[in-house]
Amino acid sequence: MTQASLLIRNASAILTGLRGEGERHAGPDIRIVDGVITAMGALPPQAGERVIDARDCVVYPAWVNTHHHLFQSLLKGEPQGLNLTLTPWLAATPYRFRASFDEHSFRLAARIGLVELLRSGSGTVADHNYLYYPGMPYDGSAILFEEAEKLGLRFVLCRGGATQTRQLESELPQALRPESLDQFLSDCERLTKRYHQAAPDAMRRVVMAPTTPLYSMSPEELRTCAREARRLGIRLHSHLSETVEYQNAARVKYDRSPVAFCGEYEWLGPDVWFAHLVKLNRDEIGQLGATGTGIAHCPQSNGRLGSGIADIPALEAAGVPVSIGVDGAASNEAADMISETHAAWLMQRARRGELARSRAEGGVREGGADAASIEDVVRWGTAGGAAVLGMNAIGTLEVGKAADIAIYKLDDPRYFGLHDIAIAPVASGGRPSLRALLVAGRVVAEHDAIPDLDLAELGAAARAAVKAL
Ligand SMILES: [Zn+2]
């Protein structure tokens, strides 16, 4: 499926996803052979080589989204949950609609979410799917892999689920009952055997991902999961410390902090990453860093639900691998990576600014504009994502890496007048049109269009499905 030799020519700017000196590359050309970047610099075209003209375009590594719930792509702006915080929102929106999904609506939701991400320049999507129950009439896992494969995206299935229910689920119908631990583990093993590729340039991965450590399983079951995942050679993922309610619950149930609890049950390490991590104390940040446990930072969802803003500079300084996730669209009406990274850039600066105090109050700083640069945010959304997923062949633009490359054409007035167009996609936000998106060297979108995809038709199907739900 890969193009034998392909040349991206005359890029106006290249951000690489690397840190420090290498974070920009002068290019202006990138050669790709058999899906791998083989040269960067001033490269004359070779005979028979396919050329993509990137004049007036900005080139980034394709984004790596590390936390999502694709089924929620038909639950955007749902009125009953729109103005609620996490716990009541869970009952009002995602859990209320769980039983309403059938094979058709689940597939449609997955397609919408993946298309939305692809059009923002994402090449890899990790989906935390927790829509499983005993006797389900369709195979959601297979649908997710199929839909991602059709679009040419790398897909990481974080197999969610629960053996216990929260109070708010306890009165829900049969279709929402939890699985047994055996059902959960045997399905993780089945999926791993069927889909999981261990290679650093995998197109398909499986991750064990009970929905939330504090509520989904007993502590002993969590430990069993951690050991089983490591036996299978797959990673661990979950939600953690999204709001203060995690701190409250961990204290009441286990008399310790959420991170300390996870450490006790073998849920910390370089093969684990958590979504959110908004509410942490200093010890928890230190423990996450010391163990190399990663984060999927989800600023828009955390903003939408009023949860707070994770302290990303402190986490990164402690040694935590930082990545970006859009989270489900039921709590993020802009579940694309451009909106998400734009929000990350602004919110990290706003967060630090919030901590500024006058001199009379002992303050020393005016604001927080040094909290995150555009290059930091690009690195989190690309190389950081590859790191938490353990997919080290992607995430940066360097010779030897897989050619997962987003080429943005800045043809909207939003991008006119910029002194440094390299920063445009993240600094200006919006949706820069895609000159092309490459995944493993294969062109999956070109001139802002996805082959064989009719967006008007997809929109009409979405409207009908929302009505039916
Ligand atoms: Zn989530």
TrEMBL record:
Domain called Amidohydrolase-related: residue spans: 58-425
Listed Pfam families: Amidohydro_1
Protein keywords: Hydrolase
Entry GO MF terms: hydrolase activity, acting on carbon-nitrogen (but not peptide) bonds
Family, similarity comment: Belongs to the metallo-dependent hydrolases superfamily. ATZ/TRZ family.
Protein name: Amidohydrolase family protein
